[in-house]
Amino acid sequence: KIYVFKKAWHERVAHLLKNVDLSKWKTKTVPVVIEFLYCTKNAKRYDPDSIISAFKSPLDGLVEAGVLNDDTVEDIPIIIARQEKSTTCPIRDKKINTLTIVISPVNDISRYYSEAFKKITEKASFSS
């Protein structure tokens, strides 16, 4: 059952973007931060790890549609996910779940990390 759900999200994202002119988008040539806002019609709150894992299929759809080069950490070093109930979301359709995706170039990746994390990873290539 989960496979069908994931496949549907993958195909939905790819379908929504298939006629979009992506020629001027830089998302295939520079690392990006992706922000997900998941608005749910029910009151259930999901764990952060559950929310992040739920976005694998939409990410695959973005790659298939040509928005992203790949879904590796080199291409998407930062993913920010948030869940809200439908009543507090900008898209207030209480009958359906909605997903909003914002993709932005990462100009300064270090601004996303705390000073403590930067110290731990200062020798790693992604901290610069």
> How much is the radius of gyration in Å?
16 Å
Helix amount, in percent? 25-40%
**What number is the mean pLDDT?**
80
Largest sheet: 3 strands, mixed
Instruction: Give the structural class.
Output: alpha+beta
> What would you call the shape?
globular
**Alpha-carbon distance between the two ends:** 42 Å
Number of DSSP E strands? 3
Order of helices and strands: HEHHEEH
Strand percentage: 15-25%
Would you mind describing this structure in some detail?
With 128 residues, the protein is an alpha+beta fold. The chain contains 4 helices and 3 strands, in the order H-E-H-H-E-E-H. It has a 3-stranded mixed sheet, covered by helices on one side. The termini are far apart.
Briefly summarize what is shown.
With 128 residues, the chain is an alpha+beta fold. The chain has four helices and three strands; from the N terminus they run αβααββα. The mean pLDDT is 80.
